[in-house]
Amino acid sequence: MVSSTTIHPSGRPAPADPADVAPLLPPGTVPDTLDGVTYVGLVPFRMHRVGWLGLPGVPYLGDFPETNVRLYSVDSRGRRGVVFLSLDAARLIPVAVGRLGFGMPYRWSRMRVEHRPDGTLTYTSTRRRPGALRATSRITVRPGEPIDDPTPLEHFLTARWGMHGTLFGRPLHLRNTHPRWPLHRAELLECDQTLLTAAGLPHPAGPPASVLYSPGVPARFPPP
Fold this sequence. Notes:
CATH class: Mainly Beta
Number of helices: 4
Strand order of the largest sheet: 1-4-5-6-7-8-9-12-13
Strand content: over 45%
Number of domains: 1
Distance between the termini: 9 Å
CATH superfamily: Acetoacetate decarboxylase-like
Largest sheet: 9 strands, mixed, barrel
Order of helices and strands: EEHEEEEHEEEHEEEHE
Shape: globular
CATH architecture: Beta Barrel
């Protein structure tokens, strides 16, 4: 069981054709769609005091930035979730636990979060492994006004209560529980990244469909 508090400053989804992302999803799932369109999310955030196996969260090892590339999925039982194509994280032990224990595509990266006096946040990451899988990102956002009534797209992107994947060749659905995200709209000031193409996706052709910020929520992941 994992317990964590996450700061989720920027969701940057781009629209995608479901036929293009369907081959990237695990067996038993299909792209989840809104009005016939699915999305690709680029989400930087911070994990705070992560704990494993029901233990209390720990400092340092449990505190680290992370950036993921995600797709939006639904399985044959109607369970909506996300599929992670990559997860860049700054701590080696959580990366190893995620890869070996849950089969998740974690990458060990050099990462930094900058909070500037003008209220902007900048996330940077560089994968430590050289070669074809090496990728970088630099994302800067300015949080804006809180959202009292999310749009259908904002609800679609954030009301996710689990992830789909595979573990030892078998389908995996890992639930999570957390309060509703307190959302803010945000302005994207900078996005220079190669994470999407490294995950096998085309480079976005236009601006993001939505940019969101959240100050964070506590989350728990029961056993799969």
